[in-house]
Amino acid sequence: MTRRSDVVVENFRVTLPVLSAAASGSVALNPVNFGTRLAQLSDAYTEFRFLTLRAEFMPKSVVDCVLGYLAGTVGTGPTTTQAVSQLERSAYHFSPQTTMSALVLSRKDLIGEAINNWYKTGVGSDSDSQGEQQGTIYVASGSTDLNVHFIGTIEFCGTVDPASTPVFLRRVLRFREWGPALDMESKQKILQALELARLSISSSSSSNDCCASASASTPTGCIPSAGQRYPNCSCSGVMHS
Questions:
Q1: Angle of helix 166-178 versus helix 184-204 axis, rounded to 10
Q2: Could you say which of 25, 81, 96, 152 has the lowest number of CB atoms within 10 Å?
Q3: Between the CA atoms of 129, 54, 24 and 123, what dihedral angle is there, to the nearest 10 degrees?
Q4: Is this prediction's pTM over 0.70?
Q5: Mind giving me the DSSP string for 15-54?
Q6: Residue among 55, 61, 63 nearest 94 (CA)
Q7: Higher pLDDT residue, 54 or 233?
């Protein structure tokens, strides 16, 4: 598998109320479901994958409880303690226990059995979530009140420029795919074209034309340093003081 140079690794820990009104539930493995911090980080990248995950849990009342994991997506997941406990990767908490139980998922569990190498950070509205969900944590308990403490490591890749449109982003991703086969001169030309496209996108989102003001010496928007030409301006030949 090709090593990517734009990968960012993040450690995280978050406590989530996985059960609040029912005796069973689930948590899909997408960063948007693991607290505000990971959700905000995911906005800056196009893809993710969980590397390790530890789910610690202990019911507040004296009842049995079980957590289990399935890679990918399934039509109907398990909802009873018996069904969840029969999953190959599961952890059972018996009611007499007074210490926490933990479901521990290794890199092999999360990536070795995953359908895809990477998953999309953006959650779509369609019913097909195979490209957005690495797997699912299933929970079943004799209680309707359960918090789970998640500790893990996640990778993000594919930095997103907030000023980029989907068209510009598609061009960048396409260049990453077939860029290695090009000579250096061709790469430079493509990168220059992408940069011009990015500048065009940025300039269209705000007014950067100093000619719109009453005086060319006092441009609107961002004011350039002394002796510099104002970018994206119809009077770009003017040197502003």
A1: 170
A2: 96
A3: -20
A4: no
A5: EEEEESSSSEEEEESSGGGSHHHHHHHHTTEEEEEEEEEE
A6: 63
A7: 54
- Burial tier of 154 (Cβ tally within 10 Å: 0-12, 13-18, 19+): buried
User: Residue 84: is its pLDDT beyond 90?
Assistant: yes
Contact between residue 171 and residue 136 where contact means Cβ atoms under 8 Å apart = no
* Contact (Cβ atoms closer than 8 angstroms) between residue 205 and residue 199: no
Q: What's the CA gap between 5 and 240, in Å, rounded?
A: 40
Residues 6+ apart with CB under 8 A from 182: 190
Least confident interval from 37-41, 120-124, 127-131, 215-219: 215-219
Rounded Cα distance between 111 and 49, Å, is 8
Q: What is the mean pLDDT of residues 65-91?
A: 90
CA distances from 6 to 46, 173, 179 (A): 11, 12, 15
Does residue 125 sit in helix, strand or coil?
coil
3-state secondary structure of 90: strand
Round the average pLDDT of the chain to a whole number and report it.
Answer: 76
The sheet with strand 65-71 has its strands ordered as: 24-28, 135-141, 65-71, 89-93
Q: 188 by DSSP, 3-state: which?
A: helix
Tally of CB atoms within 10 A around 101: 17
